[in-house]
Write a structure and sequence with these properties.
Order of helices and strands: HHHHHHEEEE
Distance between the termini: 36 Å
Strand content: 5-15%
Number of domains: 2
Helix content: 55-70%
Shape: rod-shaped
Largest sheet: 4 strands, antiparallel
Strand order of the largest sheet: 1-2-3-4
Low-confidence stretches: none
Length: 185
Amino acid sequence: MRIDRLTIFNHLWAIAGFCEWTRWKWSETGWSWMLLVGALALALYPNSVVCLAALAGAQVVFTTFAANQPWNHGLFMALMNLAILASIALPLYNSYIGTSREGVLVYNMSTIEVFQEDRRLRLGNYLTDAEDLDEIEDELGWRPQDSEGIEYSIAPGPDANSYEITATDETGLSICMLMPAKTRC
């Protein structure tokens, strides 16, 4: 099993869920089984954000509708748990989005290699001076799968047998690759 921050956090939250279930069960409150199911699921699947969200949701729903509570401490704790979950989940999600954007750019740039090699076989050199996608398409016939909002340019590499391709998406993420070595500039 992989141990990371999410796993440790989920284990701690599962223990808190068991404790909360015990407290409500002792008070003979109905529907406390929701907390037990959520805590068990989280203990069995510690890498699951879905189980974490389910337990947090069960805590909020259960403590909101629990009877005879002058001050709903459980609701406050459940909302704090949701805030902690958001503080973990949002950076992970943003990192995932950034990684996927970078992956699209790198994949699209790697597909130009076949067109450049074809040009080198026909004309003896790579295209090394193209400022935009239209110019690249005119010279090589290359058009990436997903090019909406992405700007491409080709510049000379450090030697005559290489070239640099740069892609910049609409968010400002820019990747430069030295080809045909397929390394970052």
